[in-house]
Each structure stands twice: as C-alpha cells, then as structure tokens.
Write a structure and sequence with these properties.
The complex is a heterodimer. Helices cover 74% and strands 1% of the residues of chain A. Chain A is built from 15 helices and 2 strands. Chain A has a two-stranded antiparallel ribbon. Classes of the chains: A mainly alpha, B mainly alpha. At the A-B interface, α1, α4, α5, α6 and α7 of A face α1, α2, α4, α5 and α6 of B.
Chain lengths: 317, 298
Amino acid sequence: MLNTLAASENRKAGSVWRRLKFGIPLYTMMIPGFIYLFVNNYMPMAGLIVAFKQYDARKGIFGSDFIGFQNFKYLFATKDALVITRNTLLYNGVFIVLNTVLSIFIAILLSELFSVGARKLYQSVILLPFLISTVIAGYIVYGFLSADSGFINKSILPLLGIDDISWYNEPKYWPVIITLVYIWKNVGYNCIIYLSAIIGIDRQYYEAAALEGAGKVRQIFSITLPMIKSVTIMLILLAIGRIFYADFGLFYQVPMNSGALFPTTNVIDTYVYRSLIQIGNIGMSSAAGFYQSIVGLVLVSVSNLVIRRADPESALF
Amino acid sequence: MKTKEEKRFQVFSHIVLLVFALFCMIPLVLLLMSSFEENSTLIREGYGFWPKAFSFEAYEYLFRHGGQIFTSYFVTFFVTVVGTAVSIVLTTMLAYPLSRDDLLGRKVLGFLVFFTMLFNGGLVPTYLIYTNTLHLKNTVWAVIVPRLLLGAYYVLLMKSFFTTSIPKAIIEAAKVDGAGEYRILVQVIVPMSKPIIATVLMLTAINYWNDWYNGFIYITTKTEYYTIQALLNRMLQDIQYLSNNAATMGNISESVSKIPSTSVRMAISVVGLLPILIVYPFVQNSFVKGITLGAVKG
C-alpha cells in the first residue's frame, strides 16, 4: 500500500522531469524565436521606463538618471497632448463606424450576387488598395491634390468655376480626405471577413423566409445581420482595443508631413515620431509613447473582458 | 424562379458594387496614366486620366539614369527574400512546439508570444535599442530584423493550424519510428502544412515588399540600402521641400517646372507596384484564406 503510493509519487515527479527531458528538442527549437522576441519586444517593453528618465545616450536606457514624472508634466502642459489624443480617438471612432457599416453593406451585396464570377471580380478589385503601400497611396493623393498640377485643381475646380485650393495648407479638408483614403485602403479587408461569415450562413433560412413571403430587405435585417452579430462585435471590440494607435503612414505620408495640417492630422504616432526623430526630444516622445502603450494595454484588456463576458469562445485571452 | 424583387436587387447590387469598385480603381488609373504622360505636359496640364502627350519618357529615364532604382530594386528583393525566409523558419519553429499539448509549460510560453501582440514598447525604446544597443541603424539589417516575427500573429495562426489539422497519431507514429522532433517537423509537419505556410509566406512577403517605415526610420545616410518604398518616400519629401521653397519664393509654377521628371515619380510608383499586381491574381485565394483564418481567432 505505502509502496504503491510512493511509487505513484515517484512516477509523478518523474513524469514532470521526463516531460521536461523529452521536451528538450522542442525547447531548443523555440530558442531562436524567443531570443528574437526578447530583443525585439521585451527589451523595448522594459525600455518604456525611459519615459521616467533623463535619457543620456552614453548611459543607455537603464543607466540614465530617474527624473520622475517630469517628462509627463512637460507633455501634458502642451496643448499638443490634447490635440493628438482627440485626433487619434476621433479618427479611429469614425473609422470604426464607417468601416463596419460599409464593409457589412458591401459584403451583403457581394453575397447576394447570383454570379460567382462577378463576386470574385468585385472582391479582387476592392481588396487591391489594401496591398498598396502608404507611400504610393501618398503619391496618388498628391496626384489629385497637388496645388499646381493636381487633378482636382487643374481639371475639376475650373469646370465648377471654383478657385484653386491649396489642399496641403488647409487643415479643414483633411478629416474628410484622410477618412476617404482609410476607407479606400481598408474596407476591402474587413469586407472579406464579413463575406466569409455571411457565406457560412445556411441558405435554408433564406429559403424558408422567402416562402413565408419575406422580401430581400427583410431577410437581410432578420437573418443576415443577426447571424453575423458575433463576428461584428468581435471586430468592433478588437478595433476599440486599438483605438489609441493610429496608422502612422496614413497620417504622415498622405498629408505629406505638412506642418500647416497638424491641427487635423497630428496623432499620437506622428507626434512620437516627430518629437523623437525630427526634434530629438526623447523626454517628450517617450512620455507620449508610454501614455499610448499603457492606455492601449488597458483598452485591449477591457475590451477582451467584455468579449469574454459576451462570448467566451471569441475572447482573445 | 427569380422574382421581380430579386432581379431589382441584383441590379441595385451591381450598381453599388460597380461604383465602389470604381472608387477603388480610379486612383490607380490616375497613377498609371500619369506615368505615361510627357513630363512638360504633366506640369502644364496636371495629372489626369488620359495622357495628352503619350510618352515612355519617364520609363526611358528610369532605365537610363536609374542606378539608384536598380540598387533599390535589388535591395527590396534581397530584403523580401531573406526576411521572408528567416521569418518562416522562425515562425514554424516557434509554432510547432506550441502546438504540442504534451509540452510542459506550453501555456506560459504561448502567452509570452501572445503578450507581444497586446503590449509593446513603441517607437522610442525600440529605436533606442536598435540604434544605440544593437547598432543596426544604416545597415541593411535594420529593414529586415524589425519585421521578422510580425507581432507574433502568424505564429498563432500557424499554431492553430497545426493543432487542428495535424492528427496527433501521425506525430506519435513518427516518434515510434524513431524520428527526432526536428525530423518530424521537416518531414511530417511541413509537408502537411503547405497551405498555411503558403499563406503566411505570402502575407510576410507582401509586408516586406511594402515596408517603408523601417527604411524611413533607420536608413538615414546609406542610400545604397534604400528599398523601393524608401526611395519613393525620399523623392516625395524632396517634392515637398522644393514646393515649400518655391512658395516662399513666390513663383510656384516656374520653380516646380525646374524639378525634373514629375512623371518619373509616378513611373517609379508603378514599378514598385508592378510585382504586387503581377503576383496578386495568383496568390489572391491564399491571401483571402489568410484574412479569414486570422479573423477566426484574433
């Protein structure tokens, strides 16, 4: 009796040991990847501490002197802090709403097409902008908006009898321009996700509804939309988790870094970049970066919590 | 039988989709057409959808004076090939052990990978570490290394493919036959995972090809390491610089007309875009698959 107990204890201890030992080839296999993650991801995470320091290149991130919240005091004393927070949140808020509505709308239309060939063709075309780098997108926008050779100023405005507009000096137009470029680049991507969810719906529901006399619009509202609800909520919550991060290229390349446009184009990411690389103010930029990383983490965790409450299956962690 | 309402709905759908498809395509048409416009006409008449004076001037210029462009093209190819190859190897070697449920500590290790998707140090510490600790600034590695394990996202994508699509019995059988883990990975897992590997490969390659950000930040003096995207970016900044100065001098059109080859910029964009346009029809299916797979989890 005692013997068997001891033996089973032994086996247990042995099994952990044995599992570790047999796992050695698997662990060594992961070493390169983890070294990479350590250097590329975990070191910078620890490096966030630079926001509380007076950075000195000779002493490095971890050797520099602590100065407490000094950098944050400077950052939040400027009106930039408010502007970049507002811009980041507003743009992303608008993007989430428009992207969701448009993607679902287009996906429904695509799913209803009789011709599969036509569906494939439309799908290829609307996904294409997603594959174009932001730099090239910036060139294309310049082709439309350049003050002296842009298509709009040279060909459209004269037709309407309107004077040239100096697009890259007028902040008021940019919320619309940036949003259009965002939609152009991103709707195709989300659309594909929704389309695959819609195609997965059992066609029998629609046949039954049609027999009952429900029209197309009624079918969409009573079958399609409820059936894709969980995908939709998940994508929205994921986007909300990223609401503190802006697409750097969209806000830097597309307005061509034009200073006159900062009131409506400066977001946290462009602010961090400019303070770091162009101004060389490591204190300000690290404070803004820290602010973004921490609030970002909180938002991801909260939205995950919400997802887990609503639908444990689709929670991230 | 198709009802009248269904037919009307089809027409409506086609109209809306056509309009949206045009919205997506028109900017690309402007880019392509402008690259065939004669430079002086382009400056006088502006960018347009049909070249008023059709010419290959811009492309001829690229071929004759394009030393930097050939270099950049070569750098882009090199970066894309090396970066994608190393990424795939790293990703697979990380994803396979994580997919094994007999691996002790799998949950913790998996979370360490996943956590990098939730939280990151951001630009400042990353930049300081890459430049001051690793001294990668102005080397070709600066445009390869930062993208090797793209946010760990593909690791998880691959891991979930391994767990769901490869029966445990096959791994067990290989072990009984005396195969080691590395041999199992190379001879059993990889051949069975071609679809997911193809998808990740292609998404990674496109990301490398289109990456301008790292070149923009880390390549500041060594123009020989400019990728196509970084080169385009530099040229865009130059236009901006020149037109800003022209504005302060008060005579915009004259100064801008002195910038050579406005159409050349469009031509380089086309050249940078071309490989993607050529590959796109062939890889579209696995690309779409990659997007929908990703949406299933995270």
